[in-house]
Amino acid sequence: MLEYLSIKGFAIIDELSLPFNPGLTVLTGETGAGKSIIVDALKAVLGEKVDTSVVRTGQDTALVQAAFREPALDLPEGIVSSDDEFIVVREIRREGRGRATVNGTMITIPHLKEMGDHIVDLHGQHEHQSLLKTSVHLRALDSFASLDPEILEFADVFTRLMQTRKRLEKIEADKKDRLARLDYLRYVTSELKAADLHPDEEGKLREEEGILGAAEKLLYTAGSALEALYQAEGSAVETVRRCAGDLRQMVGTDGRLREVAELVEGAGVQLEEAGHFLRAYTGTVQADPGRLEEIQERLALIASLKKKYGPSIDQVLGTLEEARQELALIEEGETDLDTLKAGEEELASLAGELALGLSRARKERAPMFESSVQKELQDLAMDKVRFSVSFRPVEMKETGIDEVEFLISPNPGEPLMALRKIASGGELSRVMLALKRILAGADAVGTLVFDEVDAGIGGRVAAVLGRKLQDIARHHQVLCITHLAPVAACAHHHIRVEKAEERGRTVVRTRYLAEEERVEELARMMGGIEVSSGIVRSARELLEEARD
């Protein structure tokens, strides 16, 4: 419920503060007094788009503040309510961007608009034109039939179905690239697995290549050394042994030669060991052109793989592992694709069942809806009208498989035709009021605002309209701008809006009317400039009758 509205520097309003109460509140006044400006300010504080031209001449900023009490409202994240009350402030700047806050916390205008749609339902002078849209017809029928749970369930399944189909479409679109990638990865893993590389392989091969390439030179050098050191007559080993023996004989004569004799003997031992090693070595080294060619081919393969997949064997092996992992993911994806297709079929089947169920429920409740609307229209002086709901099957969408359109025959003998084709503005306005009346109990929005939606209505119909607004006010707080006395007489609260001049500037002033003031205002609305005692008497009777 709207508790109060404060406006500063908005259009011709310099400063205004209005408290509001439950029930039906009417705002009346001369044309141009500023009634609709108050509604425009309310729209602004609820997140509607506004032009900077609404800032009052001579001021830089317009400020609108409103307090609401909405126990069941889910506030945007980060905003906390106090005792289910929250205060919204909208600042509109002539220069630069304005801002909005809820309970002192900044909020974006789109989020404010989304929140505002849940707390106030605004019906402007031309709001009945929305009845030209068949989407409005469908929402009205669904609201009357209390189908929100079924619609939400279907919408959830339909959304998941569309998301699944979108994923499948993307997979199909990427299929060519995916297949090419799959072929490439399979080729890479096959080639590198066949190569069977090892991290330290290249170094060992190069060492072996060097030995085989110099085999003859190695054998010649080792053989010559073996001959000179060990095998030839007068070899180094024989010479050292003889020297060692001679020195050992002289140790007894001069003990100082002991150390050198031992050194020479040690050298002889080492020379013998060298000879044994060379003899064994010459038996292991041999020229093998076949093995050399094999090694060189292997090294050429390694060089080729390094050029394609990395500058080192470690990086080539890393490429192999990455290719294996990606290949596994893609192959798993093929399995996921099958799962996704199965899921799409399951969702499509479920969505179809829910859509059919929703369509049946709509058609079952349509006759009661037709009867209710027709009765309301008859109360609004459309006595001979026939009203019907037409169904047309459409391709499944977020609202189901039905397109609903209202048909009307305003006069006897005329066929039912689309409301958008034959209804006048006054007839559209009455249909809209009829819908608001029968949907009042189902509408979760706490506050309804009607801005001169009674245009084109008069006489007995106006009195009926006032009663219907009273009835709506049993379920909602209702604010109504009206020029019709029978409507104003039905209000629980009556606000008079006036223009005045102060210090050379036009300002807007409001006040709640007491009993006698209400009679005077109703008389003015009934009689215009000349208000006779008879009109005043009629106004008093009108007020008393509305209370009965």
How does this structure look, described?
This protein has 17 helices and 15 strands. Helices cover 55% and strands 18% of the residues. It is elongated and about 170 Å long. The longest helix is centred in the middle third of the chain and has 67 residues, at 313-379. With 548 residues, the chain is α/β, with parallel strands linked by helices. The protein starts with a strand and ends with a helix. The model has no long low-confidence stretch (mean pLDDT 86).
Strand and helix map with partners:
Elements: E1 2-10, E2 13-19, E3 24-28, H1 35-45, E4 61-69, E5 85-93, E6 99-102, E7 105-106, H2 109-116, E8 120-123, H3 134-144, H4 148-173, H5 175-195, H6 201-213, H7 215-231, H8 236-250, H9 258-284, H10 289-309, H11 313-379, E9 386-397, E10 400-409, E11 417-418, H12 419-422, H13 425-439, E12 447-451, H14 460-472, E13 477-481, H15 485-489, E14 493-502, E15 505-512, H16 515-527, H17 533-547
Parallel strand pairs: 3-13, 3-14, 8-12, 12-13
Antiparallel strand pairs: 1-2, 1-4, 4-5, 5-6, 6-7, 9-10, 10-11, 14-15
Helix pairs in contact: 4-11, 5-11, 6-10, 7-9, 8-9, 10-11, 11-13, 16-17
Quick rundown:
The chain has 548 residues and is of the alpha/beta class.
- Order of strands, widest sheet: 2-1-4-5-6-7
Radius of gyration: 49 Å
The low-confidence runs, each spanning 5 or more residues with pLDDT under 50, are: none
Question: Would you report the number of β strands?
Answer: 15
The number of distinct helices, counting runs of at least 4 residues, comes to 17
* Portion of residues within helices: 55-70%
Oligomer: single chain
Structural class by secondary-structure content: alpha/beta
> What sort of overall outline do the alpha carbons produce when their principal axes are compared?
elongated
> What's the rounded overall pLDDT mean?
86
Distance between the termini: 26 Å
Report strand %.
Answer: 15-25%
For the sheet with most strands, the description reads:
6 strands, antiparallel
